[in-house]
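I'll show a record.
***
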Amino acid sequence: MDDAPTRTRCHWLRDEDGLEILIQMCCGAAIGGPAECTCNVPESRIEAAERGRAEAEAHVLRLMDERDRRLHEQAGIWGRNKRLRQRIEELETLLAGTTS
């Protein structure tokens, strides 16, 4: 006699090697896979990890875009500062020439 409970919802079967298999009990999962499951089975650990990786990658890309924007802005400020320093030197030279 089998003591295992009879399941009526989709569920994940995991072995000791980390392999995950969706045991499909609804038509949605049978036709469309885990994403279409109508039993609201939680995502597999692999899917959760992949989603987390994708979210982290998107965050890194946003940070890289922000970094690039700020570096471009900083380069503009440095260029303006360089022109201002050159203009100050020119004015100091002119001032020194007029006081001599």
Notes: Strands lie at 11-14, 20-23.
